[in-house]
Write a structure and sequence with these properties.
10 helices; about 200 residues; elongated
């Protein structure tokens, strides 16, 4: 079992490093695709949660199918968690969120929200996004308000919430497939529900 744990941990560490590299490369690109972003957050964030759930299953000597389902459960919850983090950075309440919102906007971070806004913007909206993305000096609050207004016009918030729900439901499907009694999975599902309802 120790060898399996070490193998899983080593593989995860390599994936996290790869995800971090992708994230750094995205800083200088404006052609990042949604699928690339999802793969980046999977590597950078969600594989860590997936690894933790799988290692727990390995240590409990669970069947391989349960190990795989728990890994996929953690992976999907991780994707939903990171997308929710993106959402809260724009639409969270600063008093609850614990920090000022708009950090991703001010540093032009390629998030699910910015990528979709850029892809779906009309000519005027794209020109406005380009103006703020390329601005070397700017008023922070003005930039956040301008970009958020474009998000609102395009419906980016609802789009992101829908994607979060999609990954959350996929996670539940994998957890349901784990071959233990439902009551033994209750605590994990309640934890997942709390993650999805978080405000910070």
């Amino acid at each position: 079992r120790l060898a399996e744990v070490l193998h899983t941990f080593t593989e995860t560490t390599m994936e996290i490093c790869e995800g971090q590299q992708w994230d750094m490369e995205f800083e200088t690109r404006m052609d990042v695709k949604v699928d690339e972003y999802i793969e980046m957050i999977r590597l950078k964030t969600s594989v860590l949660l997936a690894c933790a759930t799988k290692i727990g299953a390995i240590m409990a000597d669970a069947p391989e199918s349960d190990q795989d389902n728990l890994y996929k459960f953690g992976e999907q919850i991780g994707l939903a968690f990171q997308l929710q983090d993106d959402l809260l950075d724009v639409y969270g309440d600063p008093k609850v969120f614990g920090k000022a919102v708009g950090g991703d906007i001010t540093c032009n971070k390629k998030t699910y929200m910015l990528i979709n806004a850029y892809n779906r913007a009309d000519d005027a909206q794209r020109a406005e996004l380009d103006k703020w993305i390329n601005a070397k000096t700017f008023d922070r609050n003005e930039k956040i308000a301008a970009v958020t207004k474009i998000y609102d016009e395009i419906g980016i918030r609802a789009m992101c919430e829908e994607k979060i729900e999609y990954y959350f439901n996929r996670a539940k499907t994998y957890l349901d497939a784990v071959s233990v009694a439902q009551e033994k999975k209750l605590e994990m599902m309640e934890y997942s529900d709390r993650l999805m309802k978080r405000k910070k």
